[in-house]
């Protein structure tokens, strides 16, 4: 058995595919979950941040920790209670793990943490954001800043730490694409708001390969914009989805006010513009994308169905 990789949030969209790829490469994979699950070839351990509890054996012999846990930002309307859940679900697991690592005197080789391109703001307009740009001050930016501060808790112990600021992950198994593709299948695909807002995207497989590269390559450290080289507008993405599904796009744009009426502040997730540049991936690493063309990425995902 190879080195042990422990994943928080390993039963989610990214975690499932990442687990498959890690197992293929000979790693031992374990998952930290809030509830017991039965997953082939993977040991699942329970944890509870409120009870300061991690199941015995979870951290033992762990070489690499990947932190994916976090409540979905678009799963529910943003009440103050929901906002607290979104924030705490990203931060408290890291704080708990850090305490347990110290108590058990376990030294990690690497810590790879999810982060978000929302670091630069829910709506940054046409501004081209690189890793050199500062964070914004809106809710999702605040969450992402605190998320990365939590990762720094482990980085401060001397563990090589990587933060992957991720945009829209293209996969039909969940996330934004699955929600956009559903109405498009029935001929109801339509741009949201003006349709001019930028979408920074990445194919699920490229993102998972990026996590593995960050884990294996000791030159990776700090924050990286984990997105494909070319952002697209919401209108163009909608058109490509309809094309991949061989469905027409004939409806007018969904008005922004209608989305805000239904989703409240959470509508910022789809109405905001995010043009993020993968500057460090392009210039500081040798990572090779499989999908840099959104049309080919969508054909790969949706054209199979």
From TrEMBL:
InterPro entries: DUF1731, Epimerase_deHydtase, NAD(P)-bd_dom_sf, SDR39U1. Residues 5-217 form the NAD-dependent epimerase/dehydratase domain. It holds the Pfam family DUF1731. Transmembrane segments: none annotated. NCBIfam families: yfcH. Gene3D superfamilies: NAD(P)-binding Rossmann-like Domain (3.40.50.720). This is TIGR01777 family protein. The lineage of its organism: Bacteria, Pseudomonadati, Bacteroidota, Cytophagia, Cytophagales. Belongs to the NAD(P)-dependent epimerase/dehydratase family. SDR39U1 subfamily. Residues 254-301 form the DUF1731 domain. PANTHER family: EPIMERASE FAMILY PROTEIN SDR39U1, SUGAR NUCLEOTIDE EPIMERASE RELATED. SUPFAM superfamilies: NAD(P)-binding Rossmann-fold domains.
């Amino acid at each position: 058995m190879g080195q042990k990789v422990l994943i928080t949030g390993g039963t989610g969209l990214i975690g499932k595919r990442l687990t498959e790829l890690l197992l293929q490469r000979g790693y031992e994979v374990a998952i930290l979950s809030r509830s017991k699950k039965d997953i082939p070839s993977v040991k699942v351990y329970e944890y509870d941040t409120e009870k300061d509890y991690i199941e015995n054996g979870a951290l033992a012999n762990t070489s690499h920790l990947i932190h994916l846990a976090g409540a979905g930002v678009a799963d529910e309307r943003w009440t103050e209670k929901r906002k607290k859940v979104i924030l705490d679900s990203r931060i408290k697991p890291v704080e708990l793990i850090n305490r347990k690592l110290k108590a058990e005197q376990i030294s990690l080789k690497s810590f790879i943490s999810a982060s978000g391109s929302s670091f630069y703001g829910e709506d940054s307009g046409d501004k081209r954001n690189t890793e050199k740009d500062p964070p914004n001050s809106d809710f999702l930016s605040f969450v992402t800043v605190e998320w990365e501060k939590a990762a720094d808790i482990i980085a401060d112990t001397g563990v090589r730490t990587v933060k992957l600021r991720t945009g829209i992950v293209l996969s039909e198994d969940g996330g934004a694409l699955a929600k956009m593709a559903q109405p498009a299948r029935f001929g109801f695909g339509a741009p949201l708001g003006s349709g001019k807002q930028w979408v920074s995207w990445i194919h699920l497989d490229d993102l998972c390969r990026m996590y593995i590269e960050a884990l294996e390559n000791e030159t990776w450290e700090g924050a990286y914009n984990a997105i494909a080289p070319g952002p697209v507008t919401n209108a163009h993405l909608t058109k490509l989805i309809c094309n991949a599904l061989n469905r027409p796009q004939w409806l007018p744009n969904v008005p922004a006010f209608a989305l805000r009426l239904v989703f409240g502040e959470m509508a910022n997730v789809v109405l905001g513009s995010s043009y993020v540049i993968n500057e460090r991936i392009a210039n500081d690493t040798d990572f090779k994308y499989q999908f840099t063309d959104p049309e080919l990425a969508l054909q790969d995902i949706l054209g199979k169905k």
